[in-house]
Design a protein that fits this description.
Shape: elongated
Strand content: 5-15%
Number of strands: 2
Largest sheet: 2 strands, antiparallel
Strand order of the largest sheet: 1-2
Radius of gyration: 15 Å
Low-confidence stretches: none
Order of helices and strands: HHHEE
Oligomer: single chain
Distance between the termini: 25 Å
């Protein structure tokens, strides 16, 4: 994957956090077309590219936990809150995907 494509994917991942924080007004783009491997590879490629930059213009990258959460968000069907079933349980927690709207991405 070239660095431009990697940056495009990482920017789309970051857009989700920025939208939630109110920094970005428009809804973030869907990540449904990307595999977990593509998301993590893109993130690591941008982080590695940041390490080689001499112009001090590093790009924002995501924590791997955010990448995993975004992948789950787009690749597991959302349940209604009352019917939600855990995707996985461990460490005293459960990962669920709960539908908050009937609107598509």
């Amino acid at each position: 994957m070239n660095i431009d494509k990697a940056q495009e994917i990482v920017d789309a991942c970051c857009a989700h956090t920025f939208y939630k924080m109110g920094i970005r007004e428009e809804p973030p783009p869907s990540l449904g077309a990307y595999s977990l491997r593509e998301l993590t590879d893109a993130n690591h490629a941008v982080a590695k590219y940041n390490d080689t930059r001499t112009d001090r213009k590093a790009s924002t990258v995501c924590d791997d936990r955010l990448i995993a959460a975004l992948y789950a968000l787009y690749h597991y069907p959302g349940d209604n809150a009352g019917d939600a079933e855990a995707i996985v349980i461990g460490g005293g927690c459960a990962l669920l995907c709960v539908r908050i709207s009937d609107e598509p991405d």
